[in-house]
């Protein structure tokens, strides 16, 4: 619908799909409120559009389906910008960059680079595209439901490594400083995530891009980024 | 009151009734006798349509239903017809989840919508008549064979049916009780209840039946007044069947 | 206080609240509705006209044969494409009701046909209509055998409601996962959720037992048929 | 062969057997008679321990088991004892999932481990004896009451039990058939099978029983040789009970 | 060829392969083992000594009362902390077997007690021992009522095996999720997975029907008891 932006403005709300279980991007704080980097970015964008942000939480599997079913206008949930996704959906400019890191047990000195994954077991969440990276490095995939399970597999010795983004890993280390895992390697190229919307709404994409530019310009982005990561994560 | 014409009934390929006619006048008491497997129970069940005849006509009171292979039956007519009949089953078929008195009350409450008090009073009265008032609150599972049969009789009598169908109503009763139950049934007959009973107890038949139908292999071999059948049966087969009773009766009688 | 206990106590509030708000109402409503659907479906398959019975068989086949998750997905994300946009809770309710209906219809069908034909006949012989015979004579006897398998379905349902999370209903298990997301303690939180589920199903188990005892007491009708 | 001493049996608070003694010599035939609810079926079931006596001693053949409240029973002894007995139930209890012939074969195959051919041959022979060879492959549900009862008799006879217990073995049989079945039973008795039967059919009792026990309200009122009980009963109650038969028999006999 | 069809065809291979490798063996094995456990549990509850019966009740209570997912988690992620490190497949097998055992034990218990006591007595009267009476007389009659609810459990199991994905068993549903992770077409892939599940359960439904017909033919024993 070309009038996507119009409809949002007239309704006065931007409906955003998100998981709500992906710390530190989209999660619930102790008081139960939905918070996180992506959530605050979403609120800031809505603010710039002059509407209110309304979040709908669902499982990853259904998130993008909900876009198709017009249950919400955008998904802000660390959706990586890939060619495959671009074929079906439109992305905003990237609002966050992260790097894939290779995580192993602390006592593991065998795996030092991504290439060392060859023939090893890598625990990968099925909701991310790190699995593909692991596979391309020659690892045998062990599918899990999420990062926390991948770490469990690592700790119980059922997997040798897991690949995730550096930001999630930092969050994990913040929560569990004693966990006996470490980063063995970091990928050179960053992955970028953007706001994903249904195709055919150029005005909406443009408006979101403008909003992203605006929050970067006025320091809102910097504040949010510092709050969650202690660094600027735009590049 | 009851008028069956040319009733045929087959189970699959097996013909069980092969054109049976039966007329029972209002207040009449007819006994169905004959060898095991002859079709007595089946004929009885055709009267209240627990078994649907393959063909023929069933008439009970004002209700008349004609059967032809492949023709649908009017369910309302069937219900109407059933409401005029009560039945005592060969194996009692008490409701196992209800006590004796609740079994007897069931028809009064559910079908006739009597208030509970009244139904209870009548049920107790009937149980008393069959000598079971003291077992009113017993579950069927804790009753002896004869006790179950008497509850079944009380249950069938409760809604005062115009027609009472009994399949071996005294098979589980000792001669003494059998005598008492027969007396109850005979009194009903006198009061005008029409009755058809399948029975092996020729003495029972002799005592209260007005008419007797001798059924063998799905056909009526001989029918007529009880006195006539028992005293001067016309068919050789009947003579033979009746004689077993006589011989045994004589043997027992002679001994005493 | 050990870490795990503290975490459990802290999370108890949100979990219970999610249970009271979503899990319990969803379970009770969809079981009640589903049982009605199941009874109707069973009766149609046993006594209904052929074409209708065939439709019911189709319904049971589809629902039992496909994952509940996919059914919920289709109702919530699929139906909008044909213009039906349901809210999450009603969508979940429909999904669970259809499911309970399909499974219980099979149970009810089995136990109804386990009641001896002679009991129907005895009911007819005292003048009952078909619905009366069903309600007063057959179902009470069928109930006794039906209680354990039906309570299997009921107790499964309590836990299956966690699938509603997939279509944005923030029920109990989802609440647990939210906490896992920030604490990275899946085992502790899941065990806590399991304990709450256990408490809920224990209520049902106790009800089941009471019901069984009551139905058995009714003449211990094992013997009655003996 | 059978020796029951001081058998007491209560269901909950209800005493049903109040100290019954019963002795049946090898090859003896004893009839249990008495009014409905008197405890005949219960006593019969105490002999093969389908019902465990509250107290008393049961001895069948070499097996002797003593019962006392609260004492455990030796399951092996129970099985040993049961293996010497066969039983015909008041309501037949055929196995509904097996055909008539399979019902009769069941004990031979499962318990005695006979080869199939031999079991089948014997089953057919027994069905023939009770006039049901033509229904060998019928399911119990499609048999008439009398047919079911005859299959039940054949099933009980199949493993050639030393003791045969019958609960109303002719209740569903017409007089003719009853005569035939009685003949079969009488022949067994002559061949040495010990028999105890609960029956309302005083003529049956008179014809094949050597001894008669009159049971009422859980107590033996009178016991003795059949001829004695039927011809000169000593107790007033027995006289009264027997007389119902005589009167009816006379009435029927006289009419014919 | 429309996009969705092409995607379905492309993914068919991996999905079927995952089904053949994991879903089917896991289902068949755990149902067979679970049914054995269920029968044993039912017999203990009905006829066993009190303390043993209490243990079985506890087992049924725990297993029915807690989510299968959590049970799998505890077996796979929890047991290592007490030194038991199971591979994914055996862990899943144990979890599913225990589950099937608990649910079927309730069904079997119900149908065994629905067989009239007189049938036990008839069996004893011709000299059968307790196991013989059970096997030859009671179970065949109980089977008829048991088939539909047992097949409920069986068919549920086919789909519940998808939970094994949570403990890294790459079964059918996980194979679908892997493809979703790169194609972002959950609806299409899930419907495809659902169709494969439907095919599997259809086989079971047909078996159920055959079995029912066969057991019913055995003397249509509804009437037999009438
Ligand atoms: N399981 C039971 N629970 C309680 N009471 C029972 C049970 N079985 C039998 N009784 C009672 O025990 C008494 C004797 O029953 P029993 O079946 O032995 O009588 P019977 O002499 O065989 O009678 P009938 O000639 O009517 O068959 C009856 O009053 C009956 O109600
Ligand atoms: N449902 C059925 N299916 C097939 N055959 C049946 C069925 N019911 C009865 N029959 C057969 O029909 C015949 C007549 O049975 P019915 O029960 O009417 O006999 P009956 O005269 O009452 O015998 P009895 O005196 O032994 O009770 C028997 O040969 C029986 O095997
Ligand atoms: Mg009959
Ligand atoms: Mg008796």
From TrEMBL, chains B, D:
Where is this gene product found? Cell membrane
- Which SMART domains does this UniProt record tie to the protein? AAA (SM00382)
* Swiss-Prot/TrEMBL keywords: ATP-binding, Cell membrane, Membrane, Nucleotide-binding, Transport
The topology of this chain with respect to the membrane is:
Peripheral membrane protein
Q: Does the keyword ATP-binding apply?
A: yes
Q: Does the keyword Lipid metabolism apply?
A: no
**Chief place where the protein resides:** membrane
GO MF assignments: ATP binding
The residues covered by the ABC transporter domain are 2-242
PANTHER family, per the entry: AMINO ACID IMPORT ATP-BINDING PROTEIN (PTHR43166), L-CYSTINE IMPORT ATP-BINDING PROTEIN TCYN (PTHR43166:SF35)
Similarity section: Belongs to the ABC transporter superfamily.
UniProt protein name: Amino acid ABC transporter ATP-binding protein
Tell me what organism the protein belongs to. Answer: Flaviflagellibacter deserti
TrEMBL record, chains C, E:
Family matches, as Gene3D superfamilies? MetI-like
Domain ABC transmembrane type-1, which positions?
Answer: 20-208
Its topology with respect to the membrane? Multi-pass membrane protein
Cite the InterPro entries for this sequence.
Answer: AA_ABC_transptr_permease_3TM (IPR010065), ArtM/GltK/GlnP/TcyL/YhdX-like (IPR043429), MetI-like (IPR000515), MetI-like_sf (IPR035906)
Query: Keyword Transmembrane, does the record have it?
Result: yes
Subcellular localization, per the record?
A: Cell inner membrane; Cell membrane
The main place the protein resides is membrane
Q: What range does the record give for the signal peptide? A: none
- Membrane-crossing segments per the record: 20-46, 58-79, 187-207
Q: Which UniProt keywords apply?
A: Amino-acid transport, Cell membrane, Membrane, Transmembrane, Transmembrane helix, Transport
Q: Name one Pfam family in it.
A: BPD_transp_1
Q: Does the keyword Cell inner membrane apply?
A: no
- Protein family membership: Belongs to the binding-protein-dependent transport system permease family. HisMQ subfamily.
For this entry, the protein name equals Amino acid ABC transporter permease
The organism encoding this protein is Flaviflagellibacter deserti
